[in-house]
Amino acid sequence: MSNLCIIPARGGSKRIPRKNIKPFLGKPIIAYSIEAAINSGLFDEVMVSTDDSEIAEIANKYGATVPFLRTEKASSDFATTFDVIEEVVAQYEAINRNFDFICCLYACAPFVTSDKLSESLKMLETQEYDSVFPVIPFGFPIQRALKLEGEKINFFYPEFSLSRSQDLEKSYHDAGQFYWMNINRCLKKKKIVTNNSGCIIISEIEGQDIDNHIDWKLAELKYELLQSTE
């Protein structure tokens, strides 16, 4: 089996400028993803898909390849992760390189470990999923979610307004770290998460969505706490 790791890292981050190479506890945040992928020993190639020469230089420094620069279309604010994957696969096919499994690993995912990558790949292979990715349990039941209607607050799901939290079904959200894919199946279905996807469950301290500067600081605090308990 041939495996490729794709790390998407465009240069045009809006909410946190230069987010993908911003220093995270002493080194560019993208370095954590590159090192986790390389150290896992799972990949025939670890590549960074970018439109930015500085990101490409840093990616090379930490051991990733940048065999092609991303096109303008795949670098726009409207391009999806799937668009990037499709483009990278087509670029490799053009030089007669094909892969059985692809892992799309985000550049701002310092909590990813080689063990989690290995565990997810094993699940993908043995259970014949289309894709596998990490999820985090919601800290509070989504069935008890509230919404504002004008100046009044109401339940999204009034039928659960009197339910005990412990009686409600557990819910999860995408950790936003990586996706292992059977690439042929996902390309055929034109999506990453299908009706045949699996997951590994991680804790709230093992992940952090990083969309603003407060998120960034929380991620650093969580990372340091995890390191101190190992």
UniProtKB/TrEMBL annotation:
<keyword id="KW-0548">Nucleotidyltransferase</keyword>
<protein>
    <submittedName>
        <fullName>Pseudaminic acid cytidylyltransferase</fullName>
        <ecNumber>2.7.7.81</ecNumber>
    </submittedName>
</protein>
<keyword id="KW-0808">Transferase</keyword>
<dbReference type="Pfam" id="PF02348">
    <property type="entry name" value="CTP_transf_3"/>
</dbReference>
<dbReference type="InterPro" id="IPR050793">
    <property type="entry name" value="CMP-NeuNAc_synthase"/>
</dbReference>
<dbReference type="InterPro" id="IPR003329">
    <property type="entry name" value="Cytidylyl_trans"/>
</dbReference>
<dbReference type="GO" id="GO:0008781">
    <property type="term" value="F:N-acylneuraminate cytidylyltransferase activity"/>
</dbReference>
<dbReference type="InterPro" id="IPR029044">
    <property type="entry name" value="Nucleotide-diphossugar_trans"/>
</dbReference>
<dbReference type="InterPro" id="IPR020039">
    <property type="entry name" value="PseF"/>
</dbReference>
